[in-house]
Amino acid sequence: MYVDMIYGLNKIKEMAEGDSDFINSVIGVFLEEVPEDMKTLEAAVDSGDFEQIYQLSHKLKPNVDLLEMESTRALALEMETMGKNEEDLDGIRARFGRLKQDIDQAVLELRKDFDL
């Protein structure tokens, strides 16, 4: 059974121009940085720290964009805007739940697919 992957590698492969070390490096950085950023973002969401929510959501966007995670990028953008405008903490919390689910799934798939 074929299951849609949550991420794509076309952008990275295009940038890598056949360099598999580059691809592995980008994936490695994603797996190192993004889960840490998500922990910090979760704490910011829990405490209602709009500035941190804004900054971390902003930082997350290029990482998920590189892996072609469009719906995840859209969630991060919404959270970034809401954090910047200091509005709707409940809405931010709801979006964070979906964001975390997407990121957790991508991390699991990447670790499995790249044996990391």
Describe it.
By secondary structure, this protein is mostly helical. The protein starts with 9 loop residues before the first helix and ends with a helix. The radius of gyration is 15 Å and the shape is elongated. Helix content is 79%, strand content 0%. The protein has helices at residues 10-16, 20-47, 50-66, 70-84, 89-113. The mean pLDDT is 94.
Main features:
mainly alpha; 0% strand; 116 residues; elongated; single chain
Helicity, as a percent range: over 70%
Structural class, from helix and strand content?
A: mainly alpha
- Count all strands and give the number: 0
Q: Count up the helices.
A: 5
What is the string of SSEs from the N terminus onward? HHHHH
Q: What would you say about this model in short?
A:
The chain is mainly alpha-helical and 116 residues long.
List the helices and strands and how they pair.
Blueprint: H1 10-16, H2 20-47, H3 50-66, H4 70-84, H5 89-113
Helix pairs in contact: 2-3, 2-5, 3-4, 4-5
